[in-house]
Specification:
Elements lengths: L4 E4 L15 H13 L4 E8 L8 H9 L6 E6 L11 H4 L10 E3 L5 H5 L4 H14 L12 H42 L8 H22 L13 H17 L5 H16 L9 H14 L1 H27 L2 H7 L4 E9 L10 E8 L2 E5 L7 E6 L3 E6 L8 E7 L11 E6 L2 H13 L3 E2 L5 H17 L2 H47 L1 H7 L3 H4 L4 H26 L97 E4 L1
Parallel strand pairs: 2-3, 3-4, 9-12
Antiparallel strand pairs: 1-13, 2-13, 5-6, 5-11, 6-7, 7-8, 9-10, 10-11
Helix pairs in contact: 6-18, 7-11, 7-15, 8-11, 9-10, 9-15, 10-15, 11-15
Amino acid sequence: MLNLTLVDLPGMTKVPVGDQPADIEHQIRDMLMQFVTKDNCLLLAVSPANSDLANSDALKIAKEVDPQGLRTIGVITKLDLMDEGTDARDILENKLLPLRRGYIGVVNRSQKDIDGRKDIVAALQAERKFFLSHPGYRHLADRMGTAYLQKILNQQLTNHIRDTLPGLRSKLQSQLLSIEKEVEEYKNFRPDDPSRKTKALLQMVQQFAVDFEKRIEGSGDQVETYELSGGAKINRIFHERFPFELVKLESDEKTLRKEISYAIKNIHGIRTGLFTPDMAFETIVKRLIAQIKEPCQKCIDMVINELVNTVRQCTQKQKSSQMNKKKAAGNQVIRKGWLTINNIGIMKGGAKEYWFVLTAETLSWYKDDEEKEKKYMLTVDNLKLKDIEKSFMSSKHIFALFNTEHRNVYKDYRQLELASESQEEVDSWKASFLRAGVYPERSVDKEKVEVEELSRDGQIHSLDPQLERQVEIVRNLVDSYLSIIHRTVRDLIPKTIMHLMVNNTKEFIHSDLLAQLYSCGDQNTLMEESQDQAQHRDEMLKMYHALREGLSIIGDISTTTITTAMPPPVDDSWLQVTGMPSGRRSPMSSPTPQRRAPPGPPRPGGRAAPSRPAVSPDPGGPPPSIPSRPNRAPPPGVPRPNKGSPAHGESPQSSIEG
């Protein structure tokens, strides 16, 4: 007999009794639903034979969670307590209120039998004798009783195991293949081996050198498909980010001409110069060349960060699985925090606070700090910052992001206004945006603009043709010289970084790293296995052996057991009748099973019932008719219940999980 877990669920309580809470009915229903909604749960809808079956709460709940009737088995109890002259034959033959899996009748021990210590064996024998001797059930005796119910449940569990066994085998095999490579390294592991630490250190350094070079050179056997990393990201820095930073240094044409004009006038002094001074060209060029230093330093910092990330990824690969490595890798997060989007109209919800995540490439915001529901994500390319004046209605400090190409930043908005409670928080966010390559807009005070506009008119009119010609000459020379400088810098800086940083790093890892590790301290302490790593190794070995043992057990299971087909569907529309008006009884429900006249001599082959409905009536036709109960005087001493009185004594619903 295969094992099943029997869960005896309580019956539906309608009215609180004693100290029970007022919502006891809802609590019990919620508890029932936790069990009966599971797909691997068989529902035993237990109903007493001496009460109205159509009012059974067990059948109602079973219909809600199992509308097709695939998991529901009806169980009829108290067959020996029915009124004389009545039986539940129509129910047990699945003709009255049919279920797809039918009904099974059982006769349990009474309270008198329990008090008299009647054992289970005697109770089963008495149950068998009852079904064989009862004229209404003797032809169903082989399909009634507790023993038959056990057989049916055992067969259902066997069918369930047969159906789920192939999927379970495939799942175990996939798990075994995913850890087999890692476990292979742990099989021959011996902690007491004296040469283990030296050998492990040498292997780790060699593997680290190989992994680092593969990530930089791009010749790795495991190619990442979810992000750029290593050499590919450094290449992007050289050919995209660094040229972009140089392009942003281009000066405004009017500003540059004005500076050249000032330089020429200051060089000539009180005299009027006849020739274009070389010093004006040198002064302007030196100032513009000095501006190139910042993009070069930023390029170096980005390459250093990527080299550090590459080293970290190579070390994580040696101490974690591929899944952990994938989680550790990712777009570098620069800052996280709460900000308010300030320029959303009131009709669209107004200003709202979101959880922002700024990385080197994107700006995303989420509903909350759990980062599950992403609201929007935009790239930081071509974005700039500018300050927004604080309105008198708001106490928050505001700054805005806008696109330098005059495109919409967020949906229909030209700029994205972000606000925070303090100016320190805004300044901190601006510094974080600088790390992501988002620079502030060049702003000039309004007063300075007005002064320059007033003075510009006077300067234009005061420029003589000779000064204009000198300014044009210097402007052309500066433009030509700076184009040469930018082209040279774009070519030399990546080569210099590759030679002095990337190649030297690879050479150090190949040649000097092992010697540095030996000289830094005790090798035994350096290569001591951590407690977490030892625990991880033991868990992986236990999982490996458990998976192999599980596959071995599944392989030994015989799949040639006898299986039973699912019974055909029946007309169970009677279960869908709800909300009948008070004072009227549904024609689908009967107070009790039909009373029969006292049986005469048994007929050979049982009784014929030509007037009974078929086992599986036409689903499109009318529901099965339920015979009415004829009036009959109650026996002496037995009170006659009122017509339409509620059912009582219903047994609790049970469920069985496999």
